[in-house]
Amino acid sequence: xxxDKMKKLVENNSVIREMFEEGKNLRKIYGDENVFDFSxxxxxxxxxxxxxxxIKEILEKEDSLKVHGYMSNxxxxxxxxxxxxxxxxxFETDFSENNIIMTVGAASALNxxxxxxLNPDDEVIVFAPYFMEYNxxxxxxxxxxxxxxxxxxxxxxxxxxxxxxxxxxxxAVLVNTPNNPTGVIYKEDxxxxxxxxxxxxxxxxxxxxxxxxxxxxxxxxxxxxxxPYLTKYYNNTFIVYSYSKTLSLPGExxxxxxxxxxxxxxxxxxxxxxxxxxxxGCVNAPSLIQRTVMKCINEKVDISIYKKNRDLLxxxxxxxxxxxxxxxxxxxxFVKTPxxxxxxxxxxxxxxxxxxxxxxFGCSGYVRIAYCVKTDMIEKSFEAFRKLAEYYKK
Amino acid sequence: xxxDKMKKLVENNSVIREMFEEGKNLRKIYGDENVFDFSxxxxxxxxxxxxxxxIKEILEKEDSLKVHGYMSNxxxxxxxxxxxxxxxxxFETDFSENNIIMTVGAASALNxxxxxxLNPDDEVIVFAPYFMEYNxxxxxxxxxxxxxxxxxxxxxxxxxxxxxxxxxxxxAVLVNTPNNPTGVIYKEDxxxxxxxxxxxxxxxxxxxxxxxxxxxxxxxxxxxxxxPYLTKYYNNTFIVYSYSKTLSLPGExxxxxxxxxxxxxxxxxxxxxxxxxxxxGCVNAPSLIQRTVMKCINEKVDISIYKKNRDLLxxxxxxxxxxxxxxxxxxxxFVKTPxxxxxxxxxxxxxxxxxxxxxxFGCSGYVRIAYCVKTDMIEKSFEAFRKLAEYYKK
Lengths: 394, 394
Hints:
The structure is a homodimer.
Chain A: H1 4-30, E1 36-37, H2 49-61, H3 64-67, H4 77-91, E2 100-103, H5 105-117, E3 123-127, H6 133-139, E4 144-148, H7 159-165, E5 170-175, H8 188-205, E6 210-214, E7 237-242, H9 243-246, E8 255-258, H10 266-279, H11 287-295, H12 303-319, E9 332-336, H13 341-350, E10 353-354, E11 356-357, E12 366-370, H14 375-393
Parallel strand pairs in A: 1-10, 3-4, 3-5, 5-6, 6-7
Antiparallel strand pairs in A: 2-8, 7-8, 9-12, 11-12
Helix pairs in contact in A: 2-11, 4-11, 5-10, 12-14
């Protein structure tokens, strides 16, 4: 009696559960400290002290009915003003509270955008490798994901194929930079070429093609590299932001959408997104945490820990002969596998190493190794990586 | 470029905004203290002190990565165990953590149930008057709401019409008791008759008809009356619970779904609901607040304040000649209007009284008067109610 749409998802779920159970089993047999789990994108650096202090301060000083109460479905006005002002200062934009809709994390932000813009069979273009949960979000509103093949040279978008795959049905293009799973940041030059194509295609088809920039990793950037703010390059851009990684608050479900005034029909779109936020059941972003991020607008987690992890693991893996682009952001390495990626993950498990196969991101022949883990686990895992490398050298 | 489904909602939104703006205008002209706003279902009693203390204690004593981190999409296991145990103790049920899925409030709980069970054109039966946002939840998954006419005698379900309107397309029946907007609690006897019909119809059509019990007002009951726990009467029952009113935490978005083992195909349904929680973008219920409700499992707001409000307002309104059933729960009076309910609301506004017309709940000829307001506002409003009554006596 499950809905037809959900049946396949429920069937597939047993595969995921199996993976999870296997990991649990390994831990039981070998002990937690001898299993090297690089499979999860769960922040390993604690939230800044200021965050917990801010929560306590809010509870002590602010009106309890307000702190825990309903507000506009788009969020507290002062929170949205603070965020708009901060974005304006950092990126020389010109947003007001009206351009910001607070959301239950980035996942619901993407859902309410898709609910607001997609008609059945509309297409959303993504660039492989990509977070395949996007497929479920888009399918929820009867849209269709069109994936562009990976450009394994540098994991920037393959723009030639992109241009060819835009059709009259293309409603949106979704980018995620810094990228999960590659850690790559799209260069400004790439963005310029991409939006040049989109502008041309908008004209050709006489309707808007939205750009959606999913940016949970915006603040996790290691080498003084700038991540372009996409509303400055293309009018019809949604920004989707989350504090999950910035402040290590993934369980709290807090993020926002930016809808610029320059977007075509922006007023109605803001209304549609706000209503969607309500009727998909979120109603509003959690109130206490909204007020908390306002008080922590300039905070971020200590990313030097992630940087250290990246450097350690990248050096060791390349030293062992693995091929991998040095990622500039996020907390993942995307490593080429000498054999089929699923086979490689199975073999790695024999050395108590857990990864996610690239095929789970629409890019086989690679694995995602998440380095949002304790640094000493990375150091302890080196011997296992050495054995794995050796196995494939035979 | 808004999706077709959203267009109508965006158009209607201007009507709601107009109402809101009118209220704001009244406040500007007459001052906050001279506008008597009975239109909102926003708790007016503060969260128990224990709640804010619990939050501080969690921040001080528990591991920050856990408190703010991801957990299973169904919620923290210890939170779910605590809730299951508490329900078992209160209602002599036999749930475990596996039967509980923590949600982003009741609204998202209803959404993930509908996503899990509805195929296009499936019907969900509701009893007017009802919270019309249900229409949007059901439409989100291409289902159709079938409303049973109000039984204005006592606002219990009209079971004759109910039986006649169950078809082969009926997938679920949604009840809300204590009820918004009437405050009525369905009697045990009514429930028994209702499920007797449903059992018969399940057999007739050879498929399950789910009962969904939306219970945000369960703890807001005034006269020592018992609210039946519906899983005990019918196997295919979902319970939808929210802490919005129980603990005055509506902005925090915290609630849960109960799926009993006795439900047909319960394992797959639990999986479907858990996946739906993830893919509609909620991912999980907010983590810190999950841990907070666990620590406050036996707390509830001081309902004597609501009771006092109810008694005050009910006495005055009946004294003035208005007709209204004395509600046993929730925080609303549903009052018969001497003229068309929208016209009555417009006239009331001239006396600075704000209500919601019954037609917004599928039951014209009535207004909803929400008494979740400060008691002194109620006392101050009596003169305006007197003038309104007098106007219609002429």
